[in-house]
Amino acid sequence: MPSTLHAVILAAALSLLSPTAGAQSPAINPLLVKPVNALSAEEVRGMQQRLLDWPQLQHYRAENAALPVAVPGQPRVVFFGDSITEGWGRTGSATFFAGKGYLNRGISGQTTAQMLLRFRQDVIALQPAVVVILAGTNDIAGNTGPASQAMIEDNLHSMVELAKAHGIAVVLSSVLPVSEYPWQPGVQPAPKVRALNAALQRYAGQQKLVYLDYYTPLANHEGGLDKALADDGVHPTAAGYARMAPLAEAAIAQALRAAR
Questions:
Q1: Which of helix, strand or coil describes residue 105?
Q2: 145: helix, coil or strand?
């Protein structure tokens, strides 16, 4: 197959599967800013990799395999999410709950559909006492195509059901406030975020889950994040994470108490 035609087919497939793949990271999908025939070999290889491993199961595979046995008396907690989770800091780093033994399993740009596919590998197989799920903003942004609120809820409900079936306590987080996505202007996400969070809070109550409300203490009058808390209006700064951390700690403690 001629290389140019191959690139066209690859680009078309990627646009259907993940029109803004990786958009939550500083890197911009090259298809958004370049014609297909201007893509470099490296950019094509990157898109091929995303097509071959859409849920990005390889991302934490080696790290999961090397994970030591849980420390007695230190409940294992997995933070499961997208770049807002991943950007909190690497597992074991000083910026991510130092000394707690918490595990970060966030992947930039992911939607709930991708997360559901890797839930068994990156959560269940690690045998945590608690999973903190934070997801949905990339679905609203349309990172892997249009997604209705019902679709987002279905994926999150499935994650909850899987966790409960394996004896893992769930902390279900609200979506963070956002008034505009830099990589997807015109979406007007603020009312969609509020509606989704209201549904998640109701569901958490029905299922007796701990609901972690990040939205209320972070939102400004526009339903977004101030620059002090998120430079780009989406990804928390150190100040944003500092406000989130005690909320997460309190929610985890509540979930552990309820599980006893």
A1: strand
A2: strand
Q: What is the DSSP letter of 67?
A: P
Question: 188's torsion region: left (phi>0), alpha (psi -120 to 50) or beta?
Answer: left
Q: How far is CA 65 from the centre of its chain?
A: 21
CA distance 147 to 143: 9
Counting Cα atoms < 13 Å in the Cβ hemisphere of 92 gives 3
Question: For 163-195, how does the pLDDT look when each residue is reduced to its tens digit (9 = 90+)?
Answer: 999 999 999 999 999 999 999 999 999 999 999
What pLDDT digit, counting tens, does each position of 69-94 carry?
888 889 999 999 999 999 999 999 99
Please answer whether residues 85 and 131 qualify as being in contact, where contact means their C-beta atoms are separated by less than 8 angstroms: no
Residue with tokens 């526009």: 222
CA distance 210 to 244: 15
pTM reported for the whole predicted model: 0.86
Task: Output Rg (C-alpha) for the chain, integer angstroms.
Answer: 18
At residue 24 the predicted structure's pLDDT band, cuts being 50, 70 and 90, is very low
Nearest Cα to Cα of residue 136 among 105, 176, 107, 164: 176
Sort strands 103-106 and 77-81 into parallel, antiparallel or unpaired: parallel
**Strand, helix or coil for residue 22:** coil
Q: Classify each residue of 41-63 as buried b or exposed e, where b means 16 or more C-beta atoms within 10 Å of its C-beta.
A: eeebebbeebeeebbbeebbeee
Cα–Cα distance list, 155 to 27, 66, 139 (Å): 26, 28, 11
Q: 41-49: list long-range contacts, CB under 8 Å, 24+ apart.
A: 44/7, 44/10, 47/10, 47/11, 47/14, 47/21, 48/10
Return the residue matching tokens 């609200």.
Answer: 174
The residue among 139, 163, 167, 166 whose CA lies nearest residue 153 is 139
CA atoms within 13 A on the CB side of 225: 29
